[in-house]
């Protein structure tokens, strides 16, 4: 059966209001150290996109400090 024809499919739209309800409020005087430190080990020659996207997504999602550990040869590309 095609997915869109399944009558038992349960769908819920995540909107701004739902996110505000589910995520805790951040204190006005908080800083990146308050929200943890995430280390991402990723990247190889010709494959820097995933490393960059993962690190950016973590920061945008609310991780405090995000450190990307990648091969030294990629520093000029990702820097």
Span of the ends, CA to CA: 48 Å
Instruction: Give the neighbour order of strands across the main sheet.
Output: 1-2
The secondary-structure element order is: HEHEH
Beta-strand segment tally: 2
Sheet-strand content, in percent, reads 5-15%
**Rg:** 18 Å
Give the helix tally.
Answer: 3
Low-pLDDT ranges:
none
Helix content: 25-40%
Structural class: alpha+beta
Q: Major β-sheet, in short?
A: 2 strands, parallel
Q: What characteristic shape results from the CA principal axes?
A: flat
Would you tell me the overall average pLDDT? Answer: 88
Notes on the protein architecture:
By secondary structure, the protein is of the alpha+beta class. The chain contains three helices and two strands, in the order αβαβα. It is flat, with a radius of gyration of 18 Å. The chain starts with 15 loop residues before the first helix and ends with a helix.
Keywords:
79 residues; alpha+beta; 3 helices; 2 strands; flat
Brief digest:
This protein has helices at residues 16-22, 49-61, 75-78, and strands at 37-41, 65-69.
Write the layout of secondary structure elements.
Elements (H helix, E strand, L loop, with lengths): L15 H7 L14 E5 L7 H13 L3 E5 L5 H4 L1
Parallel strand pairs: 1-2
């Amino acid at each position: 059966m095609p997915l869109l024809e399944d009558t038992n499919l349960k769908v819920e739209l995540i909107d701004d209001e739902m996110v505000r309800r589910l995520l805790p409020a951040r204190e006005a005087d908080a800083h990146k150290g308050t929200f943890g430190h995430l280390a991402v080990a990723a990247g190889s020659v010709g494959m820097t996109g995933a490393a960059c996207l993962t690190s950016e997504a973590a920061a945008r999602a609310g991780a405090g400090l995000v450190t990307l550990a990648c091969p030294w040869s990629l520093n000029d590309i990702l820097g």
